[in-house]
Design brief:
heterodimer; A: about 400 residues; alpha/beta; Peroxisomal Thiolase, Chain A, domain 1; 2 domains; 11-stranded mixed sheet; two-stranded antiparallel sheet; 14 helices; 15 strands; about 35% helix; B: about 80 residues; mainly alpha; Non-ribosomal Peptide Synthetase Peptidyl Carrier Protein, Chain A; 4 helices; about 60% helix; globular
């Protein structure tokens, strides 16, 4: 019998709240974190997209100036979320050799990398900061969290584009089940609202161009969706072996019942139109958690609001859950906070845990004319989840054909 | 040309910016590593910022000889002369 793994701490900094209580309150209310960018570089480079979803609380309002100086913005967000999750767990004493970190990012320190390149071109090599390398490396956030908490059982960085955050939770489960750690701080962080990534995602026609109406641009499942909205932030969870949590009398939010990761091996960016890789991931996570389709009451969907992405996920959900999919309350929370790329899975994991714990599904906003090809039961107004034993799933898919699914069960 | 007092005050500002240490903690007899707990990466940042501020060049091989704040003030003062 595999070790049971539970969730005892949650943290987040997002476009709809700089901490978990604020984010959750807004997620149930239905707000948009997307706004017009006021930065001079939008006009300077004539970017085709003029808006994004920035974190509602700037990192420098939480971290000291000196602390922040040594961290890329992505690491700043990750450390903020990890500290909140750690404090929330209430852990005061721990064997640090049994504490691991699995903290993901999609892109890593893109601001640091490109700032250093600008500095080199404008001022020469002498002015390129000595902290540049540790700040730009993708493992920077995992390393910073490990350093911050004294986590010595390994600091891991799964990188699988927009599936990274969910893959970090998957890895965390493995680390505890396999006995390599008793507690894992897992999550994901991203800070890529920089003109280069905005230009690059625009070039591939992935971003919404609804420049005159940013708040309504992220509209998963809507007939008039035209792309995702770039977000930023971080989410973090404290995973703990059940016996470890019970021994210290911890407040347990939920069980991390099962997880899985698959690869499409179909196309570098396009989702498999039949959703086969996603279907296998859903089925594998349910198998891993000994979950029947009828147990599932809620799904936090990947649903980025792109014309091509939303439908294959529906196809996969129907393939994995069968006719029961019609009874499942589906939330597309990127409608509110945009797409946090490598952080999205971690933030959505936090929301899914809270949905099970509070028995409330977060809202999907901007759904005005539901795509008739995606007949899901989308949560657009306050929705209570049923009493009794329930399971919720959270999906993430990433460029490269990465699929990751986690399953959360009430305790 | 800055006086030694001005160089000390300027260095203290740079150290404060990099490490958060109070400027009045940056005194001539203080060791960068032993007293001020400045690691090699911060030291390089301080050196480069001092070069810009005082218009001097501090060669990399010279940095290891700058053990105290006073060593740095003297080096910058001589380099400016």
């Amino acid at each position: 019998m595999a070790r049971k793994v539970v969730i005892t701490g949650l943290g987040a900094t997002t476009p709809i709240g700089g901490d978990v209580p604020t984010m959750w309150k807004n997620a149930l209310k239905g707000v948009s974190g997307a706004h017009t960018l006021e930065d001079e570089w939008v006009a300077k480079y004539d970017l085709p997209v003029h808006f994004a979803a920035r974190c509602s609380t700037p990192a420098l309002e939480v971290l000291s100036r000196v602390e922040a100086k040594r961290m890329d913005p992505s690491t700043q967000f990750g450390v903020i979320a990890a500290r909140e999750a750690w404090a929330d767990s209430g852990i005061t004493e721990i064997d640090h050799d049994r504490l691991a970190v699995a903290f993901a990012t999609g892109i890593g320190g893109v601001w640091t990398l490109l700032d250093a390149w600008d500095t080199l071109k404008e001022k020469g090599p002498r002015r390129v900061l000595p902290m540049t390398v540790p700040m730009l490396m993708p493992n920077g956030v995992a390393a910073a969290v490990s350093l911050d908490l004294g986590a010595r059982a390994g600091a891991h960085t799964p990188v699988s584009a927009c599936a990274s955050g969910t893959e970090a939770v998957h890895l965390g489960l493995d680390l505890i089940r396999s006995g390599k750690a008793d507690v894992v701080v897992c999550g994901g962080a991203e800070a890529a609202i920089h003109p280069m990534p905005l230009a690059a995602f625009s070039s591939m026609q992935a971003l919404s161009r609804r420049n005159d109406d940013p708040e309504h641009a992220s509209r998963p499942y809507d007939r008039d969706r035209d792309g995702f909205v770039m977000g930023e932030g971080a989410g973090a969870l404290v995973l703990e072996a059940e016996e470890h949590a019970i021994a210290r009398g911890a407040r347990i939010y939920a069980e991390l019942a099962g997880t899985s990761v698959t690869a499409d091996a179909y196309h570098i960016t396009a989702p498999d139109p039949e959703g086969l890789g996603a279907t296998r991931a859903l089925k594998a996570a349910m198998f891993d958690g000994r979950i029947q389709a009828e147990d599932v009451v809620h799904v936090n969907a990947h649903a980025t609001s792109t014309p091509v992405g939303d439908k294959p996920e529906y196809t996969a959900l129907r393939a994995a859950l069968g006719a029961h999919v019609d009874n499942v309350a589906v939330s597309a929370t990127k409608s509110q906070m945009g797409h946090l790329l490598g952080a999205s899975g971690a933030v959505e994991a936090v929301l899914t845990v809270l949905a099970v714990y509070e028995r409330q599904a977060p809202l999907t906003i901007n759904l005005e004319n539901q795509d008739p090809e995606i007949p899901l039961d989308v949560v657009t107004s306050a929705r209570t989840l049923p009493a009794g034993d329930i399971v919720a799933l959270s999906n993430s898919f990433g460029f490269g054909g990465h699929n990751a699914v986690i399953a959360i069960r009430n305790v | 040309m800055a006086s030694n007092e001005e160089i000390l005050a300027g260095l203290a500002e740079i150290v404060n910016e990099e490490t958060g240490l109070a400027t009045d903690a940056v005194e001539l007899d203080k060791s960068f590593t032993e007293d001020l707990d400045i690691d090699s990466i911060s030291m390089m940042t301080i050196v480069v910022n001092a070069e810009e501020k005082f218009g001097v060049r501090i060669p990399d091989e010279e940095v290891k000889n700058l053990k105290t704040v006073g060593d740095a003030v003297n080096f910058i003062s001589n380099a400016q002369a």
